Amino acid sequence: MSAFYHIEQRLLIISAKMFIAYTKTKSKIEQAAASALSYTNWDHAIIGRAYILFSVASGVIGILMSTLMRLELHKPQIQVFNKISKLIYKSGDFGDQAKHLYNVTLTAHGLIMIFYMLMPMLINGFGNLNIPEQLGVRSMAFPKMGATSLALLILSLIHTVLSLLTKGTPTEHGAATGWTLYPPLSNRTYHAGKSVNYIINAICLACVSSLLNAANFISTIISQTQPRKLTRIPLFAWSVLISSVLLVLTLPVLISAITMLYTDRILNTVFYEPKAGGDPALFQHLFWFFGHPEVYILIMPAFGIISEIVSKFTKKPVFGRTGMVFAMGAIGLIGLMVWAHHMYTVGLSYGAQKYFVTATMAVAIPTGIKVFSWLSTLWRGKVSLQPPMLWALGFIALFVTGGITGVQLANASLSNVLHDTYYVVAHFHYMLSIAAVFGVLAAWYYWFHKIFKKGFKASLCTAHLVVTFIGANATFLPQYFLGLAGMPRRCVDYPEGFAGWNKVSSCGAYLSAISVVIFFYTILDSIINNRRSPKAPWN
């Protein structure tokens, strides 16, 4: 009894001390709680910065995964993932486990870079940071909605991480479906565990987050801009508006597709089960109705950013501004009607193939208008080769390279030959992994003073540009040759004949990883040396 008495006495003393400490710091606690509970009242610029930093963190994860995959593909035979599987599983068929882990890494890399890096950065981050200021309004139409969607996006990323830690098969962790989640790879036959369920939850949360942001941007731009002045708003605002409209039109279709996949897994429905009258091709149609416009959703804000940078550093208005607006609208409209050019191999009729070939090639017309408008703006302009302008010029060069190969892949006959080869991987990454990222980094340095309220060292930025440009091209240009030679994608091993270009591609990936180090060093240099920036550094 005495022991219990002493314990009780000590607990009373500790409680009294805690109460005294609480009363002394009550005001500070209340302030912290109020700050935490009032996150939905954040200023649009704070929300924009939060999205940008979230995207940077997600991008680092995605880049580490891609570097790990290129490290594996540096030489034939399974090496890196074989060692990882031995560390994780200790026993079993390490070869099969290594193959599974490779595809898990590939799946997570694709989802993270698209849903958690590019989309939050280009649309939500730079959009929240700049659009109210560009429109001359104090805040977004629904200030609370931005913070709510950010919370949903963070929750979505948590679900993606949980999928990596949860068993996808009876013996292996993670979802090895590819970022497209095609059935039957994503059904219970191949992934009986809960990892795919977590991926579906993550995508649904990310879609709801993007829908909230899209509605907020549309409301802000339309309702807070007088109709007669709508044609005068900056091209970046136009690009975000068009991307937001595309999101509103396509995300519900993606949610429907993966919800049916979820019910197939949980409720034994048969939407995608061919043995019971379902059709896996239905999922592909629904997925790519979102997936192809998603390319334009991501690249569209980059169009607006590049237009503003080119205009600023040539001291000229963008050539054919109205044509640029109509071109972006046409790209978005045509993008909604060409989804099945990803599906030439599923048995489309000859008439359907002719339509999708023609419609896909038609995208090149408004895209060409944009490129020629940028070049016409540069023509005889007083071009100032400041760091953001250098990134913008890099974007134009890389975007044209990726666009040309996109027109080639629009041809059904050629696409059937190159489908599921590294040629498609190279094209896709030239559009999103390089061109879109160059757009991101052009905006990053253009609005660096808004993100950090500081300046940066121009020489470091230039070094970052050079290393990134060389590394990115060295990574993905060889993959065109690998694709033409017939190397299939999503394979952890390959014959000796593909070793040469794979080694070059992997070395390019290592160089790209070094560019990320330079990127963070530029930020640290700015903060540590307190590099000051004027309010309008590019005037």
Automatic annotation (TrEMBL):
E.C. numbers: 1.9.3.1
GO molecular function (one): cytochrome-c oxidase activity
Any GO BP: respiratory electron transport chain
PROSITE patterns for the chain: COX1, COX1_CUB
Keyword Membrane: yes
Membrane-protein topology: Multi-pass membrane protein
Entry GO CC: membrane
Protein name: Cytochrome c oxidase subunit 1
Species assigned in the record: Candidatus Hodgkinia cicadicola
